[in-house]
TrEMBL record:
PANTHER family: PROTEIN YJDM, PROTEIN YJDM-RELATED. InterPro entries: YjdM, YjdM_C, YjdM_N. Pfam families: YjdM, Zn_Ribbon_YjdM. Residues 6-34 form the Protein YjdM N-terminal domain. Belongs to the YjdM family. Gene3D superfamilies: 2.20.25.10, SH3 Domains (2.30.30.40). It comes from Pseudoluteimonas lycopersici. This is Alkylphosphonate utilization protein. SUPFAM superfamilies: Prokaryotic SH3-related domain, Zinc beta-ribbon. Residues 47-116 form the Protein YjdM C-terminal domain.
C-alpha cells in the first residue's frame, strides 16, 4: 500500500498509520489491525443527532438540553459547543466521546446534541 492510501486508525482516528509487515499500526495509540479489518470497521457506526443529522468523527456539536454531570457542581448548559467529537459504539447509548472545557473527557448520548 502507498502511504497516502492507508486508512486512519479505527481506534483513535489518527491519520499517521503505517504498514508493518501484513499489519497496520497506529503510532499514537499503538493499535494494530489488518488492512481487511479496516475496510470492514470503517463507517460501521451510524450516529444521528437530536434532529436527525448524520454525525461523523471530528464534527462540532452543540448541547440542546441542560445535562446534570455526576461529580460536577454545575450542569452542562444548553448551547455549549463541543469541538472534535469521536463516535464510539458505547454502552447505554453513550455514543459520543469528547472533551469539554471545564468538565474534561466524557461520553454523551447523541440525542442531547445537534450538529453545529
Amino acid at each position: 500500500m502507498s502511504e497516502t492510501a492507508l486508512p486512519p486508525c479505527p481506534q483513535c482516528g489518527s491519520a499517521y498509520a503505517y504498514e508493518d509487515g501484513g499489519q497496520l499500526v497506529c503510532p499514537e495509540c499503538s493499535h494494530e489491525w489488518s488492512p481487511n479489518e479496516a475496510s470492514a470497521e470503517s463507517d460501521s457506526i451510524e450516529v444521528r443527532d437530536a434532529v436527525g443529522n448524520l454525525l461523523a468523527d471530528g464534527d462540532s456539536v452543540t448541547v440542546v438540553k441542560d445535562l446534570k454531570v455526576k461529580g460536577a457542581s454545575n450542569a452542562l448548559k444548553v448551547g455549549t459547543r463541543i469541538k472534535g467529537v469521536r463516535l464510539i459504539d458505547g454502552a447505554d447509548g453513550h455514543n459520543i466521546d469528547c472533551k469539554i472545557d471545564g468538565f474534561g473527557a466524557m461520553r454523551l448520548k447523541s440525542e442531547f446534541v445537534k450538529k453545529a
